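Exam prep: given the inputs below (a chain plus zinc ion), describe the expected output before reading on.
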Amino acid sequence: MTLALPASAAKPFTEGLVTITLDDGWATQFSLARPELNARNIPATYGLVTLAIAEGWGGYMTLAQAQTLVAEGNDIASHTLTHPDLTTLSPTQLVAELQGSRAWLESALGLPAVPNLVVPYGLQNAPVLDVIRQYYASSRTVNAGRNFRDTVIYELRANDVARSVPVSTVQGWVDQAIAEKSWLILVFHEFTNGTPTRDTEYVTSDFEAILDHVQTSGVRTVTLSEGLALTERRTHPDLTAGFFVYTDGLQNGFANWSWADHSLDETNVVHAGTSAIRFEPDTWNGLMFHHPGLDLSQYESIRLWVHGGTVGGQAVRLVLHDGAQVLGSIRLDTALGGAIAPGTWQQVTIPLANMGASTGTLQDIYFQDDSGTDQPVMYLDDVVLLPN
Ligand SMILES: [Zn+2]
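Solution:
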C-alpha cells in the first residue's frame, strides 16, 4: 500500500545523496581532508575564495594545489573574491565579487565554466539574489536542512559541520537523507590532527569516521554540480499551491532562527507528512523563520495547522516582520475564534489584512509566547502563504 503524499510534499530523488563541500580554500583541506576523500574515491566540491589563492594569503591553498584538485576530478565553486557579507556591498562591489571570482577561477584553473556560488556566511537577500542570478546558476547557503528535486537551487541548504558537531549527529543526517531520498550537503572548513582551537576546525579522524559511514551506508556521493543535475533546476518557487514556509521541514529558503524550546522534526504529533513543529511557548520565547525577503503584496493569507498538545489554550502571537519593524500580528486564538484546542489539529487561514500586513518585505515569521509565563507544549504544521 502506498500513501498519497500531500501536494505540499517535497519531491524525493530516486535515492539519498550526500555532497561534501569544503569552504574557503584552506590549506588543511588539501593536506588533511583531500587524502581521505581520495582514498575513498569521493569527489568533493571546493568553494574557493579566489583572492586568497591569487595573492597567496597565509593558511590558504596555493594555485598549484587548486589545480591539483581540478586534475583529480573535484568540483570547484566560487566563494567570491574576498569573502564579504554580500548584503553590505555597493552594486559595483557586488558585481566585482561575483563576476571577478568566477572569471579568475575559469582562467586560472582552466575550467570551461564555474556556474555555482557558495555564498559567504550564507548571507543573501532579495536584491543580492537578483545579481547572483545574473552570474550563477545556483547558490548554496548555510541554512540547515535537506534538499529535494524541487528545491529552489538559489537557496540550497547545507549543514555546517563545526567543531561542536559530533560524528554521530552527521551520521544521523546521512541516514535521514537515505531514508527520505533527499540531498544532504555538508560543509567543512579547516581541519586539524590536534585539538581544534577555532569553531571552524574539525578533527581529521572524525572526518574520516564520517566518510567511512558514508561509504558503509552505500549512500550515493555527488559533487554540487552532479547533485544539481539531478534536480528540476527550479530557480523560483512554484506559487500555484502557495509558498510553503514549513511542510516536513522549512521550505523555500526559510531558515530557522528560533530561540524557544522547539523541534522542527517532531514525529509523534504530525498533521501531514512525516514531521511537524513542536513548540513550547514560554516567557516571550518564540519560533522565528527567516527569509531573504518576500514581497507581501503577492499574498492574500497565511494558512497553518495548530494542535494544542495535551492541554491547549496557549497564548501565542503570529508576527510578520520586515527585519526592522512589525508588518502585522494576530493572536492564534483570536484568528481561530476560540482557544487552541487540546488533542486535535485545527486549520486556520488568516487573511493578511486581518493582521494589518498587506504590503512590505517579509523577512521574519514569528510564533511567539504572548503570556510571559510557562505554557505547555503545542504543535504547528503545514504553514503556507497563499497568493492573491
Ligand atoms: Zn566561507
